[in-house]
Write a structure and sequence with these properties.
Largest sheet: 4 strands, mixed
Strand order of the largest sheet: 2-1-3-4
Radius of gyration: 16 Å
Mean pLDDT: 94
Distance between the termini: 11 Å
Low-confidence stretches: none
Shape: globular
Number of helices: 11
Strand content: 5-15%
Helix content: 55-70%
């Protein structure tokens, strides 16, 4: 079966858009999605940015918020900007790595994006993440403890380095065969690339 790599960052507004539709699109196209959580912070830092470009360039940030309002309304998704933005997604990303190993990753990712961008929750808060896990019927205390294990920390570091090596500079990004696509508005093109073979 053809596979699409979905590189996402929990602090990314546009990753929220993709996370909420990618599985339905993949099912219709006969494609398997490989969910790849990573951290944009180290990649931005290597470019000399201490925060999101949406914060560095206020006009760009204002445009992004308005565009998100338009797109979420069009797709029937709730939306509110969390404060602060971007949120620290370290523990959410570590949990997602575990979840993708165990089969509950996509549901967890969608729940985290919803909590953050639909309900304004602070996903850097471990209690908020435990609540999300509990809502999915998962053993939140055990899983939260696992986020501090050295092997989980190392895996996330390696996955972020892999994103950088692939030339990924923003989220969401999609890898279809050897072709990289950046942004929710390029998701259809990524699927089309897989269809061509």
């Amino acid at each position: 079966m053809r596979r699409l790599q979905f590189w996402y960052e929990f602090g990314s507004t546009y990753s929220y858009l993709s996370a909420m539709r990618i599985e339905d699109m993949a099912q219709a196209a006969g494609v398997t999605v490989d969910w790849k959580p990573f951290l944009l912070g180290p990649i931005f830092s290597a470019q000399g940015w201490a925060t999101s470009p949406f914060n560095l360039y206020p006009a760009k940030g204002r445009y992004m918020v308005r565009e998100m309002q338009r797109l979420t309304a069009q797709r029937g998704l709730p939306f509110q900007m969390p404060s602060p933005f971007p949120q620290n997604s370290l523990y959410a990303a570590r949990l997602a790595l575990i979840g993708h190993d165990e089969g509950w990753g996509p549901a967890f990712a969608r729940a985290v994006f919803t909590a953050q961008f639909a309900e304004g929750a602070n996903i850097s808060d471990r209690h908020a993440l435990a609540t999300i896990l509990g809502g999915l019927g998962l053993e939140s205390p055990v899983l939260m403890e696992r986020t501090d294990q050295p092997e989980i920390k190392e895996r996330l570091r390696q996955q972020t380095e892999m994103a950088d090596e692939l030339g990924i500079f923003g989220a969401p990004s999609f890898l279809a065969f050897d072709e990289l696509y950046w942004g929710d508005d390029r998701l259809e093109q990524a699927f089309a690339r897989l269809q061509k073979g």
